[in-house]
Model the fold of this input.
Amino acid sequence: MFSESKQDQSEYAFMLSKTMCAAANAVTSAAAYEGPSPQELAARIGTYDILPDEGIGLEKTLSRVEDVILPNMLRPFSVQYAAHLHSPALLESISAELLLSTFNQSMDSWDQAPAATETERATVRCLCKLFGYGAQADGSFTSGGSQSNLTALLLARDAFCAKRLGRAVKKEGLPPNFEKLRLYTSEISHFSMQKSAHILGLGYDAVVPVPVTAAQKMDTAALEALIARDVAAGNLPFCIVATVGTTDFGSIDDVHALYALSQKYGLWLHADAAYGSALVLSQKYKARMGDVSLCDSITVDFHKLFLLSISCSCMLVKDGAHFAPLELHADYLNRTEDEEDGYTNLVEKSIQTTRRFDALKVWMAFQSLGKNGYARIVDSAIENAHYVYSIFSSQKEFECGPEPELSSVVFRLSPFFCGTMEPGRVDRVNKMVRRTLLHQKGIVIGQTVYKGSTFLKLTLLNPRLTKENLDELCKTILCVGTSARNA
Ligand SMILES: *Cc1c(COP(=O)(O)O)cnc(C)c1O
Done:
């Protein structure tokens, strides 16, 4: 906390109250988005000189934020927002954000984050237990699901190279036959698989896309055939990634079947549970997740169905010893002599150095809501998805994707509704509906491709959404669709 004029508490309190007012005044609108086009928005924001010679001070700057930025923010807390895995932030989380940025702790070394380090450690222990891991387990907070996946795949790659090829990747780099390494994940898994493979020096070609069943789950028979084919060809399978909640459909791979295959072929099993991990807090729906404690590592994303603010994720490992590839000592930061005396430097479990105290959000939200509070949030999201699915699947104006297991519903205005079987035209009507909702109705929904056609998507994370809101939304979609069809 630093202000140029004064550095005292009253200045801080004043800044807080000003900012609070600006924020509280701006969270009132019902629309998810006010509607300006990218060009209009750029022009409005461009009215202000970002770097004047003489600064104008915080108060004036804040009023500019209120003028051009806040009104045009996307409002994920609006009941008209259902586009992405992007949630309204719980109050506990916003409160935590204020504290963690005020104190600006850095998680790399204990002396930069004493209470924060111990809080993250306690939170990680709680999470390991929650997901069914034993005493050997460990974990680390990351910037999001993508970084959690990258970290897990790095550990998987290094463990395989050490054990099977006698290669210490950390020191010696990739083995000579690195082009043969193979990772298996469903063809609809998150694109962080390919991105991670690139960053890890393996390339996209190392990621073998496994076909999915009609329910959009990895086809385990196809997976085994692909692994066997690669083994026969002299390739080096090292990892299977189970998606526990695909980004589009919320479909959940069969963790038990993948575990059996990972055991049979000696592969690391990672659960990308960025979306589905919140099921762990629902007594009613937890079983849908499968037993993720069978996996060697788990990605948990808190800024999705757990409703914590961005960014907040955790990567858990069944055996904490696997973090060793990330350990490196620097004289100026994480001395072994301190560690021998009980000071934990969390930098040794992260690909980041300076890192946010995001664990505070989990620590606060878990206590404030409790298991039951979270169960109500998760259950309502799932039940809303079932409700919308039942509407869409009972009307011939709509066509549905697979039945939801989580809180996403993929659908489109049907060829019947569009009055044409021509695929290009049906795609255009659906695309036009999404754009019109965004710019003319303040409603933001998702869009994806399903079986080669454009589909729309509702990702329902907001616990405030009621059945009435959903009825209204479906009506609006039909209404906008009618104009698009006739355009
Ligand atoms: C969202 C998502 C990710 C990426 O998480 P970020 O927090 O956006 O980095 C990874 N995997 C799946 C299945 C996701 O849905």
Summary: The mean pLDDT is 96.
